[in-house]
């Protein structure tokens, strides 16, 4: 059972990537497309590199290819730019073949909101496979849930949490221990009711009868990952 870290081609603050890499301590690192530049800057030798490299520095890719003779990695898998999957999805497909217990994605958010949205959708594919999955950036941790959620204030990634329905409706929703509580509520697409909740007790419990939720743990300040990535 492995922890897999994917560094992909969205916005990457290298200091934050370094902190996440240290705190998460992955067993396998997969780099997708432009993520190679963050890996190179931080002297991270990935296990795999995947992508079409239409937005990455090909000289960096060649550098990593040269490291194979030294480290026995990375394995580089190059794809045609005219393909049906994004580079992030290719990285996820590879990760799921490795029998992971968790996949964390860095560089999965940024200025391309279409890619950000697609990456959140891809979290569902991972979760549906029975694997824990999170997107992490400097201010947000995003995950998808099809069962009860328990949040601990001292382990939370931010001071706020938001619940967005991934399915049309999330029925029988109960939120306990939060500033805004609900009981047996139907949270539907097109509603902002689940946005920007806060802890009132050390433990928040979120349960629901049916549907799938997107959980955002967010902060106005840069996230402190220490002791929270395991």
Automatic annotation (TrEMBL):
Transmembrane segments: none annotated. SMART domains: TPK_B1_binding. One of its GO terms (biological process) is thiamine diphosphate biosynthetic process. The keyword Membrane does not apply. One of its GO terms (molecular function) is ATP binding. The keyword Cytoplasm does not apply. Keywords: ATP-binding, Kinase, Nucleotide-binding, Transferase. Its EC number is 2.7.6.2. This is Thiamine diphosphokinase. It comes from Catonella morbi ATCC 51271. The lineage of its organism: Bacteria, Bacillati, Bacillota, Clostridia, Lachnospirales.
């Amino acid at each position: 059972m492995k922890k897999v870290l994917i560094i992909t081609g969205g916005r990457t603050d290298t200091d934050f990537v370094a902190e996440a890499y240290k705190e998460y301590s992955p067993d396998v690192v997969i780099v997708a497309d432009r993520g190679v530049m963050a890996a190179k800057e931080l002297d991270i030798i990935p296990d795999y590199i995947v992508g079409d490299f239409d937005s990455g520095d090909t000289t960096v890719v060649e550098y990593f290819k040269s490291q194979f003779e030294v480290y026995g990695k990375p394995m580089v898998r190059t794809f045609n730019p005219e393909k049906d999957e994004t580079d992030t999805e290719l990285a996820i497909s590879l990760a799921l073949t490795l029998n992971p217990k968790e996949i964390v994605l860095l560089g999965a958010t940024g200025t391309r909101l279409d890619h950000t949205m697609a990456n959140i959708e891809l979290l569902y594919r991972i979760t549906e496979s029975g694997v824990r999955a999170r997107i992490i950036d400097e201010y947000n941790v995003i995950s998808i849930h099809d069962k009860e959620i328990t949040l601990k204030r001292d382990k939370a990634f931010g001071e706020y949490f938001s619940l967005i329905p991934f399915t049309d409706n999330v029925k029988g929703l109960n939120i306990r221990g939060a500033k805004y509580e609900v009981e047996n509520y139907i949270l539907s697409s097109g509603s902002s009711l689940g946005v920007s909740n806060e802890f009132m007790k050390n433990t928040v419990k979120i349960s629901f009868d049916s549907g799938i939720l997107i959980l955002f743990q967010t902060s106005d300040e840069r996230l402190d990952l220490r002791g929270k990535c395991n």
